[in-house]
């Protein structure tokens, strides 16, 4: 029987991510996402419910999180559930935890940020001034080398090919201007 293990979360980081290296040299980032839900209960009271989920990211996702993500930042995470069990060293009791292994991460902009969700080069820390819009080498007006003047509306340009003239039936124009009824569609 087929099975699916897929998790999609959007939430805010509760603290700065914890970055470590595995024995094999891969980067690992651990963090907790907080998601909140507001609803009205049976007594017509507004209730704010919070859920905290531990997330672990590996390799490139961990590098992105280390470079661009900080406490309070919103984050979109896709991943899978992982059930962990271990023995507590202090009491010897069995412990278990359900967490998420991050397979894809997307940075989101905070409310009111001028950013579109992507971090600029060199990273982004909240509290720093927003970067100025960048120009990517495109001229403000098209070059005149193409023969078009940007001040002239496109409707005023003429096509290089002559436009055919159609005349109603019964007037001169010959077979060339007669309507064609044997169209294949």
Question: Quick summary of this structure?
Answer:
The chain is built from one helix and six strands, in the order ββββαββ.
How far apart are the first and last residues' alpha carbons, in Å? 49 Å
Low-pLDDT segments = 116-143
Structural class: mainly beta
One letter per element, helices H and strands E, the order comes to EEEEHEE
Count of individual helical segments = 1
Extended strand count: 6
Strand count, sense and closure of the main sheet?
5 strands, mixed, barrel
Determine the fraction of residues in helical runs and give it as a percent range. Answer: under 10%
CA-atom Rg in angstroms:
31 Å
Beta strand %: 35-45%
| Mean pLDDT over the residues | 75
What is the overall silhouette? extended
Give me the side-by-side strand order of the main sheet: 1-3-4-6-5
Question: Could you please describe the fold and organization of this structure?
Answer:
The protein is mainly beta and 185 residues long. The chain has one helix at 59-68; strands at 7-13, 18-21, 27-40, 46-58, 74-87, 94-107.
Task: Using brief descriptors, characterize the structure shown.
extended; 185 residues; 5-stranded mixed beta barrel; 1 helix; mainly beta; single chain
Topology of this structure?
Blueprint lengths: L6 E7 L4 E4 L5 E14 L5 E13 H10 L5 E14 L6 E14 L78
Parallel strand pairs: 4-6
Antiparallel strand pairs: 1-3, 1-5, 2-3, 3-4, 5-6
